[in-house]
Design brief:
single chain, two-stranded antiparallel sheet, 3 domains, Four Helix Bundle (Hemerythrin (Met), subunit A), globular, alpha/beta, three-stranded mixed sheet, 313 residues, 13% strand
Length: 313
């Protein structure tokens, strides 16, 4: 597949239909993470405190977005809230933040209708394009850009693995802090985020600049030598794999159980336990039963999505 222009692919899928979850965007907003301004775009049709409908062009990281504000007076209180979860998986009501720029989908079902969104009503949006919510940046739709090259393994991932290994005492080379901060730096640089004086706002920017040392020093980022360091390493590694290697992020979560909120939230939206693996296809049972039985026996006797493979046990 190739993209012919921003928002449309050659197969006529609206690229802007894909929306990040509230649980990802909340993490990035809390950190004021510079990667958010590269990977994602602000909500294009926010509900607003403004008295009348109005539009403006907003430039972030060299890309310009037309943002149209819709007065909150046009909507009921019910339309301005959605069902969601807290980080422990408890059901909550998530009110819309007026004039929101960075707001993720609070529920994985019916994303297109959350917060009074419907097709054709928000700047001629397509059916699934809920512009009340944050979407992907125009960068992600480009056909050629060095930031979008396919990767087998990110350099940042290796640095975070070294940080984890050093924290657990598996290796003696380097320090946990150095490996960890190197991982964050490599992740920033792969998105062409520059180290320098952070502006008061990234609105109007041609590029994203942040002070890396100040980011490392944030209380929710800085390591303190406790076991909680593993949670911080895992979260930064999870963020570093955004877009580039979601399969590895899934594998790493299954191996470490971190970030811990993932399973709690996923299971709260389902009647099933968190999936750990793909089940063997029926073809294996039909045509390779002896080896199939041996493999299932080695896993504990059950060929289920919740059964842990040897590498996860």
């Amino acid at each position: 597949m190739y993209l012919t222009n921003w928002g449309k692919s050659a197969l006529s899928n609206d690229f802007t239909e894909q929306k990040p979850s509230k649980y990802l965007i909340d993490q990035m907003v809390a950190l004021d993470d510079p990667r958010m301004y590269v990977i994602f775009a602000p909500a294009l049709s926010p509900i607003s405190a403004k008295a009348t409908e109005s539009s403006e062009d907003i430039k972030i990281n060299g890309f310009t977005y037309k943002v149209t504000y819709y007065p909150s007076s046009e909507y009921s209180s019910t339309e301005m809230q959605a069902n969601g979860r807290d980080l422990d998986g408890n059901a909550i009501t998530v009110p819309y933040e007026l004039d929101a720029q960075w707001i993720g989908a609070p529920h994985p079902i019916n994303v297109n209708t959350q917060y009074a969104s419907s097709a054709g009503t928000l700047n001629n949006n397509s059916f699934y394009d809920n512009r009340r919510l944050t979407g992907f940046s125009q960068l992600i739709a480009k056909t050629t850009d060095p930031r979008l090259k396919a990767v087998m393994m990110e350099a940042s991932e290796m640095a975070f693995l070294l940080a984890e290994a050093r924290q657990k005492g598996w290796i003696s080379a380097g320090t946990v802090k150095d490996h960890y901060e190197n991982g964050i730096r490599l992740s920033f640089e792969r998105w062409q985020i520059e180290n320098g004086t952070k502006p008061a706002s990234h609105i109007g920017s041609d590029k994203i600049v942040d002070n890396f040392s100040n980011y490392y020093a944030k209380p929710t980022v800085a390591l303190d030598g406790s076991n909680a360091d593993l949670d911080k390493i895992a979260l930064q590694k999870w963020l570093s794999l955004l877009v580039t290697n979601h399969t590895e992020a899934y594998t790493d979560y299954r191996r470490t159980g971190k970030p811990a909120f993932i399973q709690k939230i996923v299971e709260s939206f389902s009647t099933y336990t968190y999936p750990q693996r793909y089940m063997y296809p029926q073809d294996e049972l039909s045509n390779n039963k002896e080896q199939y039985d041996a493999a299932v026996s080695a896993m504990g006797g059950k060929d289920l999505p919740s059964t842990k493979m040897w590498i996860l046990q």
